Amino acid sequence: MTNPIRDLPHYLKIFQIYLGRRMYYVFALAMVAGLAEGVGILMFLPLLQSLDSGASNSGNGEVPVPIEGISTHIHNFLSLMNMQDSTVGVLLIITLAFIVKGALTFWVLGYSAYLRGQLLRELKGKLFDRYSNMTYSYYSSRDTGHFINLINEQITKALLSFANFAKLGAQLISAMVYLVLAFVVAWRLGIMALVVGVFLLILFRKLNHFVRELSRKTASENGHPLTAMESEVRAVSPR
Q: Theoretical Cys-Cys bridge with 177: which of 24, 34, 153, 183, CB 3.0 to 4.6 Å?
């Protein structure tokens, strides 16, 4: 059994044969959607700091916590827009970022569905062309169900494979964007998220391998014509 992670470039080349470079638009849109959501998440930092500074000023006269790190760049950006002290302005930016993220996510799903339709047309069109040009000797050497299975069941599985592949690629890009943002905000948090992610990946791969082995054993047992109990019953039954 080959490694499915190492086979991803192979699948990418196969789908690119039928769809061309249009399939990369899905991944580009997913990256922009992840960035938009990341901007919305980062804008919570000045919002929380403004609320914290307001609570400090209305309290015992404590000195507010100085702005450092990525918060400095966000504060400078808000200062250019004259919104460094505007809670409503920050909330509007957060709302706009999440609206853009939702619109791009809808666009990703819609374009992925469009590409599945194009892939269906390409695969069935090429199969019809091959069917019309095959020789009678090849047709008679195969069962009719073989050709029906190819043009119906196997193409459906190919479309499902592309849908899962596009979803996997979009989620991988989103995860990379979130990790980069975690490193930008707090590198310790980024390292912790990376370690936890790698641990979960190894855990689920082990679980997937275990479930696959059980599935193979189940399929092997179901493939036997007679179970041990049925063989014993037939052996002792009167003829």
A: 34
In the structure encoding, which two tokens stand for residue 46, read together?
């000045």
DSSP state of 154: I
Write 181-184 long-range contacts (CB < 8 A, 24+).
181/38, 181/41, 181/42, 184/70
The pLDDT assigned to 4 comes to 62
DSSP element (H, E) containing 173: helix 155-185
Contacts of 98 (CB under 8 A, 6+ apart): 36, 37, 40
pLDDT digits 0-9 by tens, 22-34: 888 888 888 888 8
- Contacts made by residues 83-86, CB under 8 angstroms, sequence distance 24+: 84/46, 85/50
Report how far residue 3's alpha carbon sits from residue 166's, in angstroms, rounded to the nearest whole number. Answer: 18
Please, are residues 34 and 173 in contact by the beta-carbon 8 Å criterion? yes
- In angstroms and rounded to an integer, the radius of gyration of the C-alpha atoms of the chain is 28
> Could you report the per-residue pLDDT of 103-133, keeping only the tens digit for each?
888 988 888 889 998 988 888 888 888 888 8
